[in-house]
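May I ask for a single protein's sequence together with how it folds?
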Amino acid sequence: MDVKKIAVQTATKYKTWDPYEIADARNVQIVYAPLKSILGYYTKYKRVQCIILNNNIPNQLQRFVCAHELGHSICHANLNTQWLKKNTLVSTDRIEREASTFAVELLLPDDFILEYPDYSLKSLGKMVGIPTGLCLLKKFSR
């Protein structure tokens, strides 16, 4: 699965790189709730897609989590990773990495990197709310 290509096609189709605007355009409901230690999750019930975001985390992290969960809604619409983790021995690492890659590609498009050639990937990622270690998922092509 070429996750970068999916992220770029999604942004192009909806004419925005904003995960909230894309979710709205796709009729994905966003719900804010006090989730304690969970940052957020994606769920689908009777064809209604929902992103649940922790309302106790900073806005920039919420934006990244929204983009990550949007990645699940686009790349893994019918998978329930919480159920897989709890009830099977199936590893969800690949699924989570793909959703994080989608979020990184959506929040840190190549054009944005080209706009700021003197900045490191780490500092650009910080500017847009990507957790530091996840910037390594970015596949930059000139």
About this structure: The CA atoms of residues 25 and 68 lie 16 Å apart. The first helix runs from residue 3 to 14. Residues 3-137 form a domain with the Arc Repressor Mutant, subunit A fold (CATH 1.10.10). The helical segments are 3-14, 19-25, 59-75, 81-87, 93-107, 110-115, 121-128.
